[in-house]
Amino acid sequence: MDELNQYLLRLYRASREVSLDDFPEHALTLFNELVPFDSARWGTTAIDERGASYQTPWFYRDPPESLQDYNEFREQDTAATLVLANPDITHNFPLAEYYPASSGGLRSYQRRYHHEHALITAHLNAETGLYDALSAYGASANRPFTEAQRQLAEFVFSHLREALRINQCLNIERFRPRGDGYRWAMAICDAGGRLRFAEPPFFELLIQEWPHGARQVIPSELTQIASSKQTAKLIGRSVVFCVKVIRNSAFIHARPRMQADGLSRRELDVARQVAAGLTHKEIAKALNISPATVRHHIQAVHDHLGVHNNAELTTKLRNIDI
């Protein structure tokens, strides 16, 4: 019991202190000290007509190419089917014995990647409709997992999920825009656009902009930005999205569209300079345009935003950027 308590303390401490990209591997390293295994795969899983479809999981001593090879045989994976049909229960599989002889391709895959034994658990995420799944593999046919290890893995899995969520929430707060205005809703996805974490208001805004979109994956317009690894803004019909890619994760900020989002690029440049307190001459010099053009743009901005002075203009601009 003392070992378990120490593990949980270290896990939750790590959720606060370890970076977003490093946390999954760190958490699995701690888990490996509690329940020894040789490799693991942790992430989200969907179900389609071919069976379990892993969504860019984190790999622990398991080659990433194993997932590509698995896709060739995944409709044969009766172990995954059983686990997904019985969520929140850890199953202890002697895979070499469990897979029938008729599933020759899957048995060959299992031997090639040394997945002799497996502790597999899944939990249905009601927010996304995806399963959070963890597979821990033993490489030795003569060293199966015990019932005590299965029970321990089942108990720990909910803590792993919660610690990951805490880590994601804390990292989101580090990148949330500060100010006294509108609170941006945020989400985290991978380069393929698959959501790893999202706040409830983010889903509301996503559905507002794309009423018929799926909750598991962001729309292609946002996925293209995330996969390009560029920081960019997408101004939709009713919602504005800003995407910032940091290492292997894309942070997506979302808020309702505002009047200022309808300004042209030049009008917005001028408006920002006004909000910063620059004079007409200073703005003209900074943007390499004439003072008369500056006055023209400022009047156009006032008309568009329905403001009467620069103080009101500054208030209107306060919430449009991350």
Explain this structure.
It comes from Paraburkholderia phenoliruptrix. This is HTH luxR-type domain-containing protein. The chain has 322 residues and is of the alpha+beta class. The protein has 13 helices and ten strands. The strands form two sheets. A five-stranded antiparallel β-sheet has the order 2-1-5-4-3. Strand 4 and strand 5 form a beta hairpin. Helix 1 runs antiparallel to helix 2 and helix 1 (2-17) packs parallel to helix 7 (147-175). The longest helix is centred in the middle third of the chain and has 29 residues, at 147-175.
Structural class: alpha+beta
Work out the count of structural domains: 3
CATH architecture field of the largest domain: 2-Layer Sandwich
Largest sheet: 5 strands, antiparallel
Identify the strand order in the major beta sheet: 2-1-5-4-3
Strand content: 15-25%
- CATH topology of the largest domain, by name, is Beta-Lactamase
Q: CATH homologous superfamily of the largest domain - what is it? A: Transcription factor LuxR-like, autoinducer-binding domain
Low-confidence runs = none
- Assign the CATH class of the largest domain: Alpha Beta
Total helix count? 13
Mean pLDDT: 89
Radius of gyration: 25 Å
Distance between the termini: 46 Å
The shape, in one word, is elongated
